[in-house]
Amino acid sequence: MSIELGGETEIGVRRSSRAATGGVLGLGSRRWRVVGGLAEVRGPAACMRRDALFRRLLVVADVVALVGAFLLTVELSRRSLGLTWAGVAGVPILVVCAKLSGLYDRDETLLRKTTLDEAPKLFQLATLCALVTWLAGGLITHRPLDRHEALFLWLALVVGLILARAGSRALALRVAPAERCLFIGDEVSAETIRSKLTGHGGVKAEVVAHLDLDKVASWSTDSFSEERLAEVRDLARTLDVHRAIIAPRSVDGGEMLNLVRTLKAVGVRVSVLPRLLEVVGSSVEFDDLHGVTVMGVRRFELTRSSAAFKRVFDVLGASLGLLAVCPLLLVIAVAVKLDSRGPVFFRQLRVGRHGGRFQMLKFRTMVPEAEALKDSLRDRNEAQEGLFKIAADPRVTRVGRWLRASALDELPQLWNIVRGEMSLVGPRPLVVDEDRRVEGWHRRRLELMPGMTGPWQILGPARVPLREMVAIDYLYIANWSPWTDLKILLRTVPHVLGRHGL
After folding, report:
1. CA distance 19 to 34
2. What is the pLDDT of residue 272?
3. CB atoms < 10 A from the CB of 383, how many?
4. Range among 115-119, 188-192, 290-294 with highest mean pLDDT value
């Protein structure tokens, strides 16, 4: 069995002569390859302490948000409201409601700690709290709330809960030690997971060991025999593993179940990369068929009502956006014209819905002869698999550099949305040469109109290979919902404000 370790410390086995990084440790007939420095072992309770830190900070965040929302409502009210002792006693009750909704137990099962995904439950909690306060009359406040005060309380609760929880998770991620992960699977999947654990928000984890199933000498039905399960268990204990990430192959379900049970028996969290979800995504409904769990896969394309809803949302959002930024558009247009010769707008042929072509609008950020200079700069290309991206592109103008850093060069695409050529959120609009590289079922990404933003934008298009980007687009379509679009729009804001640009 081949096991790569994220360490360079002796772990109770004899060290070979190659003791430096990249050396090999011998253990009977097995070989253990060392690839880095092993962190200090913190004991089996470290994982539980880490989970407890997140739970406690979330409780504090909820209490602060609840008390703060009530106090703000009371202070801004024109009448003397004041909180009663019953209102103060209601705070622990709301914390219990949050506990019953699972709002304190998600983080221990997740690698990526995110607040936005639990926003629907926070909306429900805020609605319940505001509604009970309004209907309770003078029980919680000295005077009954009117409709405006109840609405303000609800908005304060929603915003306060989301912001306080996001802040508490950011603090917990900063204070808590990195989650130590054992990856069990092939090398390709391991490299993918390593890349996702670094450079992305909401994640603080590292792969400290990799058990490569492809390098098992004899892959047979006894691959996870009692002896090998014992070895995995001992490895998890020795390396103080907090979580095991499993990429299952064509293994018998009973064997995989034994592996999961073995890991959980020693207090290790378990995450699984199900291959089926690479095609269907999370768009499944669990159906209890008299004791047998069946996954029902939703249809891939949007229903007519969903497509109509998405289009109405796009038109309203783009129209309001154009009205709001109209003065800014005029200022940018003047700046582009004064900065360098050439047109204000840059039009580029892109591939749209069902393979149709359209001219995508942007503010011009490069010199007019930029396309002719492209071939001479290909050796400096930083993107992968057919995409072209240079961080310090010499073709970019002074105003263009600022527009790109702030993503303001994308604003004219609001007109593409109004015209029905693009959507606020959708697959990335590819140029013709990039689209030719997309084959097979990945072409189903063209079922929706391309988006001004999308999951690819949040990840950073220069860092995502084309094959991975089109797979992300496919899963976006498979899992589409109005809430998905709203989450992507909300996550685009901090991405742009962080000056990541497009």
Report:
1. 9
2. 85
3. 15
4. 115-119
Phi, psi of 126 (to 5 degrees): -65, -40
The pTM of this model reads 0.72
Do 476 and 454 touch, CB atoms closer than 8 A? yes
Which helix H or strand E contains 89, and what residues bound it?
helix 85-100
Least confident of 33-37, 336-340, 431-435: 33-37
Which pLDDT band, with edges at 50, 70 and 90, does 13 fall under?
very low
Q: Which residue has 């990249």 as its token pair?
A: 22
DSSP 357-424: EEEEEEE--B-TTTTTTSGGGGGG--S-TT----TT-TTB-HHHHHHHHHTGGGTTHHHHHHTTS-EE
- What does the pLDDT average to over 199-224? 69
How do 179-185 and 205-212 pair as beta strands?
Answer: parallel
3-state helix, strand, coil in the chain (%, to 5): 50, 15, 35
Residue 469, helix vs strand vs coil: helix
Of the candidates 162, 176, 447, the residue with the CA atom closest to the CA atom of residue 307: 447
Distances (CA, A) of 362 to 26, 143, 417: 59, 55, 13
Q: Can you state the angle between helices 119-135 and 85-100, rounded to 10 degrees?
A: 150
Residue 207 forms beta bridges with which residues? Answer: 181
pLDDT at 14 (0 to 100): 30
Question: Higher-confidence residue: 296 or 70?
Answer: 70
Q: What is the spatial distance between Cα 122 and Cα 179, in angstroms, rounded to a whole number?
A: 26
Alpha carbons within 13 A on the beta-carbon side of 430: 24
CA atoms within 13 A on the CB side of 201: 16
CA distance 289 to 169: 38
- Using one digit for the tens of pLDDT, what is the confidence trace for 354-381? 899 999 999 998 887 766 666 666 666 6
- Report pLDDT digits (tens) over 233-291: 888 888 888 888 888 765 555 667 788 888 888 788 888 887 666 656 666 677 767 77
Strand arrangement, sheet containing 357-363 = 357-363, 345-351, 430-431
Residue of 3, 6, 10, 16 whose CA lies nearest to 36: 6
Mean pLDDT over 301-326 rounds to 91
Residue position matching structure tokens 């819905």:
353
Cα dist from 30 to 4, 25, 225, 263, 326, whole Å? 12, 9, 16, 21, 67
Measured distance CA(190)–CA(442) in Å, rounded: 23
Joined together, the tokens standing for residue 487 give 């989450």
Distance of CA 58 to the CA centre of its chain: 20
CB 381 within 8 A of CB 365: no
Could you tell me what percent of the chain has a pLDDT over 90? 22
Q: How many CB atoms lie within 10 A of CB 170?
A: 15
